[in-house]
Amino acid sequence: MLFGRTPQLPTPEQALKGRTTPEFEVPSRHTVLGNPLLGPYPEGLEIADFGLGCFWGAERKFWQTPGVWTTLAGYQGGSTPNPAYEEVCSGLTGHTEVVRVVFDPAVVSYASLLKLFWESHNPTQGFRQGNDVGTQYRSAIYPHSLEQLREAESSRDAYQEVLTGNGYGRITTEILPAADNPFWPAEPYHQQYLDKNPAGYCGIGGTGVSCPIGVAPAGER
């Protein structure tokens, strides 16, 4: 894998030191939805963070969802502050590529976003997604509240049952609090990449197994 080296996460001591300020400015508005990319966001909206492989195709999945107010590509789950794309791809920051989803819970529920997340990639592949290999492609959810954490874990357990029944292995998705895993916006050219480049690369692809969101949690059926 990856030049003969098995990907592995660096310890905080091994990670690149990063920088105190970003090297670029994030665009002001979403090229599709027209809303601001960075907060503060309007009252009543909530934030969800998901990693499901290359963030180009992943971001499009979410901006196409009714009730999503804005989306933002970025990096999360690592140790390096204000990382650059090349640094993340080196595997020396510990980050994975993520999409920040700002949504209106009165229109689309967090559970519905979880269903889209699970069904849009293969969460059993560890440090890869399809042909994309590296720690930056690992599956991840970074909940912003205790309720989001509970929903994420419950949905994982429910989806594990149906994946196992269809011959898939253990879900490797990382589920860690967003409060302990800062979100760093990606470079301007990554934001809404597939809107700017309609024929661009999209490595997103699910297992074809439906996620049973809305059914009883695993062990209660």
Automatic annotation (TrEMBL):
It catalyses: [thioredoxin]-disulfide + L-methionine + H2O = L-methionine (S)-S-oxide + [thioredoxin]-dithiol; L-methionyl-[protein] + [thioredoxin]-disulfide + H2O = L-methionyl-(S)-S-oxide-[protein] + [thioredoxin]-dithiol. NCBIfam families: msrA. Transmembrane segments: none annotated. Signal peptide: none annotated. Residues 1-21 are annotated as: Disordered. Has an important function as a repair enzyme for proteins that have been inactivated by oxidation. Catalyzes the reversible oxidation-reduction of methionine sulfoxide in proteins to methionine. This is Peptide methionine sulfoxide reductase MsrA. Its EC number is 1.8.4.11. GO terms for molecular function: peptide-methionine (S)-S-oxide reductase activity. The active site is at residue 54. Keywords: Oxidoreductase. Belongs to the MsrA Met sulfoxide reductase family. GO terms for cellular component: cytoplasm. The keyword Oxidoreductase applies. The keyword Chaperone does not apply. GO terms for biological process: cellular response to oxidative stress. Residues 49-202 form the Peptide methionine sulphoxide reductase MsrA domain. HAMAP family: MsrA. Pfam families: PMSR. SUPFAM superfamilies: Peptide methionine sulfoxide reductase. Gene3D superfamilies: Peptide methionine sulphoxide reductase MsrA. It is an enzyme of class 1 (oxidoreductase).
